[in-house]
Amino acid sequence: MQIMNVGVLGSGDVGRVLAAGFAGLGHDVKIGSREPEKLKDWAAGVGSHASAGTFEEVARFGDLIVLATLGVATTNALKLAGVQNFERKVVLDTTNPLDFSGGMPPRLSIGHDDSLGEQVQRMIPNARVVKAFNTVGNQLMVHPHLPGGPPDMFICGDDAEAKKLAAQVCEAFGWGVIDIGGIDGSRYLEPMCLVWVLHGSLSGQWNHAFKMLHQ
Ligand SMILES: NC(=O)c1ccc[n+]([C@@H]2O[C@H](COP(=O)([O-])OP(=O)(O)OC[C@H]3O[C@@H](n4cnc5c(N)ncnc54)[C@H](OP(=O)(O)O)[C@@H]3O)[C@@H](O)[C@H]2O)c1
After folding, report:
1. Residue 105, preceding bond cis, omega within 30 degrees?
2. Are 167 and 20 within 8 A, CB to CB?
3. Distance, CA of 209 to CA of 175 (rounded, Å)
4. Which among 62, 74, 122, 187 has the fewest CB atoms less than 10 Å away?
C-alpha cells in the first residue's frame, strides 16, 4: 500500500484508534472534529504523522477518508465536511445508525430496505464508499491478537478498486477480508454490529470478533 494522506472524520474512539493505526503505518493523518482544538494534544501524542482539523479541512486533506462519526449525525458531518471534497475519493465508512433513545440495546434507525452506507454513498455519489470496521469494537480494530488467529472484516461497496484498497488497509491492520458485494450489503453489515454488541452485553466481555470458516 502506498503512503497516503488519510483524513479521519470523527474524534471518538473509532476515529482515534484508526487514525493512530494509519499513522503507525507511516501514513500522514488528519483527524477531524467540530472542535479540533480538543484533538491537538492527542494528535501531538501520536507523533509527527498526525494533525487535527475541522471536518472540512480533513475532507480536503484525505486521499483516503475514514468516516467515524455518530451514526445519526453522519449526514450532518458530511455536510459540514463539504460533499464536494469527497470527489473520486475512497471513503471507509465505519458508521452504524444506532438509536439509543430507547436505552440498551440500541435499535437501528435505518434498515431492511436502506442503510446508512447507502445514504452516505447517495450523499457523495462521486466518492467510492466501502463499508468496513463497523462489525467490531474499536479495541480490536488495529492489530487484533486473538487465540483463533486473524479475524475477518466484512466489507461491501460498489467500486472494485476502492474495495481493493480497503482490503489492503484491513490486511495491514491484521484482518482477513470477506467481500459481500455492493454497498447495499450495508443493510446486513449494520445489523451485524448488534450481533457483536448483544453477545458482549450478555457475556460481559468485549474481546470478540467474527471469522468465516471455509471448507
Ligand atoms: N465505538 C466503537 O467501538 C464502534 C465500533 C464499530 C463501529 N462504530 C461506529 O463508528 C462511529 C464512531 O463511533 P465512536 O464511538 O468512535 O464515536 P461517536 O461518539 O459515535 O461519534 C463521535 C463523532 O461524531 C461527531 N458528531 C456527534 N454529533 C454530531 C453532529 N450533530 N454533527 C456532526 N458530527 C457529530 C462528533 O463530532 P465532534 O468531534 O465535533 O464532537 C465526533 O467526531 C459510530 O457510527 C459507531 O456506530 C463504533
Report:
1. yes
2. no
3. 10
4. 122
Amino acid at 205: Q
Q: In the numeric block, which cell numbers belong to residue 95?
A: 458508521
pLDDT in tens, 87-113: 999 999 999 999 999 998 899 999 999
Q: Where are the beta strands (DSSP E) in the chain?
A: 5-9, 28-32, 50-53, 64-67, 90-93, 98-99, 107-108, 128-131, 152-157, 176-179
Q: Which of 8, 14, 94 to mutate to test the pocket of ligand 1 (most atoms within 8 A of CB)?
A: 14
Element containing residue 133 per DSSP (H, E): none
Q: How far is CA 204 from the centre of its chain?
A: 24
Cβ neighbours for 197, distance < 8 A, ≥ 6 positions apart: 105, 106
Cβ(154)–Cβ(163) under 8 Å? no
5-203 belongs to which CATH class? alpha beta
Cα separation values, 180 from 35, 109, 189, Å = 36, 22, 9
Atom of ligand 1 nearest to the CA of 77: 33
Q: Measuring from each residue's beta carbon to the nearest atom of ligand 1, which residues come in under 6 Å?
A: 10-15, 33-35, 68-71, 73, 76-77, 80, 94-96, 98, 134, 137-138
